């Protein structure tokens, strides 16, 4: 009954979705055009915004005859790379990446991110950590002064399945808020990640020192990784409602 869901999520109402789709595409195209060069090893993130980045990458590889090697952050990313006939690799063969491009669920003023809405946060963090430059692409809905203002679903945390109850209790006791086990859309069972783990979503009550909180949660036995990306992103491209691209 466990359902695999990684990298896919539905977005809001139809008209706002159409606008957001355009914004995602603008951000993704700008990031690929500005950061990808011939002979790069590229980390390919997960989610719906990254779909546009891979689309643009494939166009450029064909038109400019670029030699690009792609390292995926999820099964979804792997399938995208293969679908576009791009060169697929891994961290065994390419442990150093020139650039990683990925989406985010929320980006604050300090470029701290919440990621993992699609459940791929662990591999995303590993790949981003191996890249010289970590570039984020997002639509205007992800732009925030302080985490929690835009993304209401909390911080995703990947955990070893047998430990999800003690980890949930420990987080609530120490940091407050509510922790829930992420269930599949069908409600038939929990979401299972690409690494065969579960995802907890921690709805926090107030802004925190995210560096400290990230560290403290990571130290709880059974926590694999958190969706807090602190001090990792170098630049963010936001596609805006008016058709422009804003960077931070
Ligand atoms: C998946 C992620 C995604 O990058 C994040 O959820 C953003 O997704 P989208 O581009 O579909 O809004 O972290 O784990």
From TrEMBL:
GO cellular-component terms in the record?
cytosol
What are this entry's molecular-function GO terms? ribose-5-phosphate isomerase activity
Q: Which CDD domains match?
A: RPI_A
Instruction: Identify the pathway.
Output: Carbohydrate degradation; pentose phosphate pathway; D-ribose 5-phosphate from D-ribulose 5-phosphate (non-oxidative stage): step 1/1
Which biological process terms from the Gene Ontology are attached to this UniProt entry?
D-ribose metabolic process; pentose-phosphate shunt, non-oxidative branch
- A Pfam family that the UniProt record links to this protein: Rib_5-P_isom_A
Against Gene3D superfamilies, the record matches this protein to:
3.30.70.260, 3.40.50.1360
UniProt-listed InterPro entries: NagB/RpiA_transferase-like, Ribose5P_isomerase_typA_subgr, Ribose5P_isomerase_type_A
Give the UniProt keywords, A-Z. Answer: Isomerase, Phosphoprotein
- EC numbers for this chain: 5.3.1.6
Q: Which family does it belong to?
A: Belongs to the ribose 5-phosphate isomerase family.
PANTHER family, from UniProt?
RIBOSE-5-PHOSPHATE ISOMERASE (PTHR11934)
The protein here is known as Ribose-5-phosphate isomerase
Q: Which organism is it from?
A: Denticeps clupeoides
């Amino acid at each position: 009954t466990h359902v695999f869901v990684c990298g896919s999520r539905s977005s809001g109402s139809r008209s706002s979705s159409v606008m957001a789709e355009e914004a995602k595409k603008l951000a993704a195209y700008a990031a690929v055009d500005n950061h990808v060069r011939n002979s790069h090893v590229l980390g390919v993130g997960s989610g719906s915004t990254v779909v546009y980045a891979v689309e643009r990458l494939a166009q450029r590889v064909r038109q400019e005859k670029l030699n690009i090697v792609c390292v995926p952050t999820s099964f979804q990313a792997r399938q995208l790379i293969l679908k576009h006939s791009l060169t697929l690799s891994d961290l065994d063969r390419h442990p150093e990446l020139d650039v990683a491009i990925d989406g985010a669920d929320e980006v604050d003023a300090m470029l701290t991110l919440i990621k993992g809405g699609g459940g791929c946060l662990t591999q995303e963090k590993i790949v981003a950590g191996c890249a010289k430059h970590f570039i984020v692409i997002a639509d205007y809905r992800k732009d925030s002064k302080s985490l929690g203002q835009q993304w209401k679903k909390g911080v995703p945390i990947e955990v070893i399945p047998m430990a999800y109850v003690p980890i949930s209790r420990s987080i609530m006791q120490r940091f407050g808020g509510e922790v829930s086990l992420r269930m599949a859309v069908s409600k038939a069972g929990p979401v299972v990640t690409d690494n065969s783990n579960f995802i907890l979503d921690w709805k926090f009550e107030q802004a925190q020192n995210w560096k400290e909180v990230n560290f403290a949660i990571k130290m709880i036995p059974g926590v694999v990784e958190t969706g807090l990306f602190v001090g990792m992103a170098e630049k963010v491209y936001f596609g805006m409602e008016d058709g422009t691209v804003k960077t931070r």
